[in-house]
Amino acid sequence: HESKEARVQKLEDVVKSTISRGGTLVIPAFSVDRTQVLLYELNNMVEKNRIPRVPVFVHSPMAIKATEVYRKNSHLFNDKVQEQIAKGDDIFSFPHLEFTFSKNDSQDIDKLKGAKIILAGSGMSVGGRVVGHEAHYLPDERNTILLVGYQTAGSLGRRLADGTKKVNIHGQSIPVKAKIETLYGYSAHKDSDHLVEFVTTATERLKNVFVVIGEPKSEMFLAQRINNELMTKAIVPESGEEYEI
Fold first, then answer.
1. Distance (Å, rounded) from C-alpha 89 to C-alpha 40?
2. Global pTM?
3. pLDDT tens, 201-227?
């Protein structure tokens, strides 16, 4: 994963480069947490004039409702953000930001000429409003699809991340000419290095480590690292096997 500083800089760079081409930036984003973090960082960029002010659409009913929950519980934010809010900054509101509920709004958004940013679910492009937007914007090289999280094997997001040149959406063959960018620093999960670090803090008390999340190749690699680097027994459980704890 990129560091927080690196992820913010890359987001800014992707926004600027897409806008400079007059294109649309489509961000498939999970409705809870991911969308709110992106809105917060876009808000900061807009207010500090780090990016041009273009229309930004949150086109996801679930994300909009989740954002309202965040608004009502701002006392749970960290000190830095609470101080920002206390100074009068509505962190989920900035010029040209629009929350759109209706599915019919998709056509209105797509008809809007010029550069813009669209955040919509689902985060892996396996359904939701974002799939329709991807079908519309993928064939144009001016546009960008920014993948901001893990893309599971077999998902549309994964195929885009892997560099496919053509995808099938709603029964139509869509050429992939838009720029595909990935940004994994927004992941809510620890990466391999952080998981090894986590195990390190408890090696004296551990008898076994069960690696149970991730793709098979990644699971095996992580288990091998724990075995070799920490001299702690790490197991990748197999389906149907029983382990006594």
1. 10
2. 0.85
3. 887 888 899 998 788 888 999 999 999
